[in-house]
């Protein structure tokens, strides 16, 4: 996957629906655990030019020119295939229950009014001859666009609370699906769209209908919401359009210390803002982090998007993808640093802040970038994902049932994103050169011995550094195309109702010895306060991070063992094991 220009490729030349005719049968054996080729150690027993119309939309027909037989029509699952599938389905709408505010542990009302009394219709995607709405970056939103946005939100906030379009009800939808208002049909398992492969498609639909309702309120079918382009150096700050206290899109429940601060993706609550002298270094680190999120996951969407989850799993295993963990950092950075973390820092209230939708528009855009650089191959060609479904109020005040298979690209829903130029890969290369020069100039450091993780779970109350054997060394290019090497942090135990974070670093040892330098950041585990499971059962949590290209970066392909460091940043965390394994590519 080419990452040389993260935003320079033509986003518009895309596949409207990339479903292929073949299907991989669904089964639990397709989960990540069964795809491990060899666990070394787990402790604890075609381009085209698009025409933009004068109103800022793009003629969708131009997107389709030349695609013809490349992708073809979506193939409907066969009866035999559906028989074995266990996709998550909409809940029983008559059984909405009080949700839980994670911070206060108190019951809260997150049931949309008259939900159960509505007839449910199947969602129909926009016709393929319609124009594409173009979502622009927030830092380039013009005065006319901003005026329309403010007016639409003002009108939404003026609606009565029992209107499904009202701002309160639209914000409540996030709580409904994220804080335990519904159980999966016929089970005691709470319906939860975070921590799995449902995260991205659910939020794509959520934002889509919010945008369509806003457009309906101002009678503008081409209205497009902005995206907070936080991966672009020009936009690594809270967008100024959201900071006017007199505006309907303003929310005072934010971290005011960040109103003029540079975004720092290493942030945890109460960490000081970067100084002027640190600006260049922080921007470089932010861009490098975003680059790695894509570079290590291109052949295995599970690492980028989250682990599969099936209907009725008694104790679901939660494994958020790289993009969700990255997004969690933005939630923390935007909201107040003290409990109850309203609004952005608590999933119960997060969508009350209009900034939430700017954040998720960029998350959606980054998913589109990921898909596009994979040639729009279906990320999970399994019915358990493609047939998973949700219900939303649409722009006609009707309740519609939406399936994942119908939202695989923004274009299939009638919108796209404006093009922004950025070279994260180039920044990453410069970073590696700088780090190499820095190490060559450094004075010799005292080496200390590192041991294995051990057989018991360990509290992450200080940095843990462990020596982990690799399943295979001297891997060829072909080997790397067939399987991704990953670090697995197993059996993570946290209190979901409290925020937490730890970072994972990788270093090349000398025998059993290693210097005090932690090495290179692999990724992070980041939890935003929420309610996750029901019946007193906690989800099993796993963190999976790709390290194939990183091993090349630190010149450790010949090393039989690597040093993995877990650095606590926030909250109480217990870890059951650390390992390195090979995960077969999904393509």
TrEMBL record:
Q: Does the keyword Isomerase apply?
A: no
Give this protein's Gene Ontology molecular function annotations: catechol oxidase activity; metal ion binding
**Keyword annotations:** Copper, Disulfide bond, Metal-binding, Oxidoreductase, Thioether bond
User: Which family does the record claim for this protein?
Assistant: Belongs to the tyrosinase family.
Q: Which Pfam families match?
A: PPO1_DWL, PPO1_KFDV, Tyrosinase
Cofactor names from the entry are: Cu(2+)
Q: Which PROSITE patterns match?
A: TYROSINASE_1 (PS00497)
Q: Where is the signal peptide?
A: none
State the organism's lineage.
Eukaryota, Viridiplantae, Streptophyta, Embryophyta, Tracheophyta
Record-linked InterPro entries: Di-copper_centre_dom_sf, Polyphenol_oxidase_C, Polyphenol_oxidase_cen, Tyrosinase/Hemocyanin, Tyrosinase_Cu-bd
The superkingdom listed in its UniProt entry is Eukaryota
Q: What is this protein called?
A: Tyrosinase copper-binding domain-containing protein
Carries keyword Hydrolase?
no
For the Tyrosinase copper-binding domain, which residue ranges apply? 194-211
């Amino acid at each position: 996957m080419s990452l040389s220009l993260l935003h320079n490729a033509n986003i518009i030349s895309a596949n409207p629906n990339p479903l292929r005719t073949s299907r991989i049968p669904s089964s639990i054996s397709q989960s990540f655990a069964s795809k491990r080729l060899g666990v070394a150690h787990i402790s604890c027993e075609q381009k085209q030019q698009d025409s933009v119309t004068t109103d800022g939309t793009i003629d969708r027909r131009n997107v389709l020119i030349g695609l013809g037989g490349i992708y073809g029509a979506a193939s409907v699952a066969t009866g035999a295939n559906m028989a074995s599938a266990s996709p998550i389905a909409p809940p029983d709408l008559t059984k909405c229950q009080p949700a839980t505010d994670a911070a206060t542990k108190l019951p809260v009302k997150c049931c949309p009014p008259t939900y159960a009394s509505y007839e449910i219709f199947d969602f129909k995607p926009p016709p393929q001859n319609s124009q594409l709405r173009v979502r622009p970056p927030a830092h380039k939103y013009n005065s006319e666009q901003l005026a329309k946005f403010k007016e639409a939100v003002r009108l939404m906030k003026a609606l009565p609370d029992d209107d499904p379009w009202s701002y309160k009800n639209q914000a409540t939808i996030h709580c409904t699906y994220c804080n335990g208002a519904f159980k999966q049909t016929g089970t005691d398992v709470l319906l939860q769209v975070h921590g799995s492969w449902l995260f991205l498609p659910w939020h794509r639909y959520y934002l889509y209908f919010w945008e369509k309702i806003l457009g309906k309120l101002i009678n503008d079918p081409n209205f497009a919401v902005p995206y907070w382009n936080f991966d672009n150096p020009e936009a690594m700050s809270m967008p100024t359009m959201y900071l006017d206290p007199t505006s309907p899109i303003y929310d005072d429940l934010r971290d005011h210390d960040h109103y003029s601060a540079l975004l720092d993706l290493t942030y945890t609550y109460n960490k000081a803002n970067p100084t002027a002298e640190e600006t260049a270094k922080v921007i470089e680190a932010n861009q490098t982090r975003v680059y790695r999120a894509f570079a290590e996951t291109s052949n295995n969407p599970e690492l980028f998007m989250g682990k599969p989850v099936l209907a009725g799993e008694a104790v679901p295993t939660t494994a958020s993808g790289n993009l969700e963990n990255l997004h969690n950092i933005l939630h923390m950075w935007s909201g107040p640093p003290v409990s109850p973390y309203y609004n952005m820092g608590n999933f119960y209230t997060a969508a009350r802040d209009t900034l939430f939708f700017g954040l998720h528009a960029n998350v959606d855009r980054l998913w589109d970038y990921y898909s596009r650089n994979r040639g729009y191959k279906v990320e999970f060609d399994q019915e358990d994902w493609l047939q998973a479904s949700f219900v939303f109020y649409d722009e006609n005040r009707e309740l519609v049932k939406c399936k994942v298979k119908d939202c695989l690209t923004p274009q299939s829903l009638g919108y796209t994103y404006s093009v922004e130029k950025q070279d994260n890969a180039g920044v990453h290369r410069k970073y590696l050169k700088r780090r190499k020069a820095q190490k060559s100039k450094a004075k010799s450091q005292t080496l200390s011995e590192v041991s294995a993780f051990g057989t018991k779970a360990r509290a992450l109350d200080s940095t843990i550094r462990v020596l982990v054997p690799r399943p295979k060394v001297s891997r060829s290019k072909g080997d790397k195309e067939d399987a991704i090497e990953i670090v697995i942090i197993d059996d993570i135990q946290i209190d979901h109702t409290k925020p937490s974070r730890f970072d994972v670093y990788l270093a090349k040892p000398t025998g059993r010895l290693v210097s005090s330098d932690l090495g290179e950041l692999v990724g992070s585990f980041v939890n935003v306060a929420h309610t996750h499971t029901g019946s007193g059962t906690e989800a099993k949590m796993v963190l999976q991070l790709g390290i194939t290209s990183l091993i090349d970066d630190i010149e450790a392909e010949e090393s039989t063992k690597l040093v993995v460091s877990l650095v606590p940043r926030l909250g109480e965390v217990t870890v059951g094991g650390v390992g390195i394994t090979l995960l077969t590519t999904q393509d």
